[in-house]
Amino acid sequence: MVIDFSVVKEELETQISHLCDHGLIVDADDETMTEMLGISKGDIRWVKEHEAAKAVSNVAGFKVYLVPFPPTCEHLAKHWYAIMSHALKTRTNGHVHAKKIRVYETPNSYADFPSGDLIVDQ
Predict the structure, then answer these.
(1) Alpha-carbon distance 81 to 15, whole Å?
(2) Where do the structural domains in the chain lie, given as residue ranges?
(3) What is the CATH class of 5-119?
(4) Is the dihedral of CA 49, 55, 57, 63 positive or negative?
(5) What is the pTM for the complete model shown?
(6) Chain segment 86-105, per-residue pLDDT in tens
(7) End-to-end CA distance of the chain
């Protein structure tokens, strides 16, 4: 065994699911969406300046995950790979990192990172 799966699951919950599950993922450059959702200019500016994602709340209190890229399956796979790889390396003192992340858009469409595999509904 390389790592107990409960560790991976715990990091996935903390690093990704807690922030994104049942929320809306929005590109900080999407002025129409950020304005419609009432996202603060300060949060938008922070995401752009740091080129990092940030969990924010909108004026209605909905969970929003503001990202500095278009929230496509491919971009999210790359983003979440970086987060999980870092979290696992930190948790295991550099002994374990993520090999690949697969993000499903539909049951038949997904993107892998790294590797660039992309499956599109036929």
Answers:
(1) 11
(2) 5-119
(3) alpha beta
(4) positive
(5) 0.85
(6) 999 999 888 888 889 999 99
(7) 37
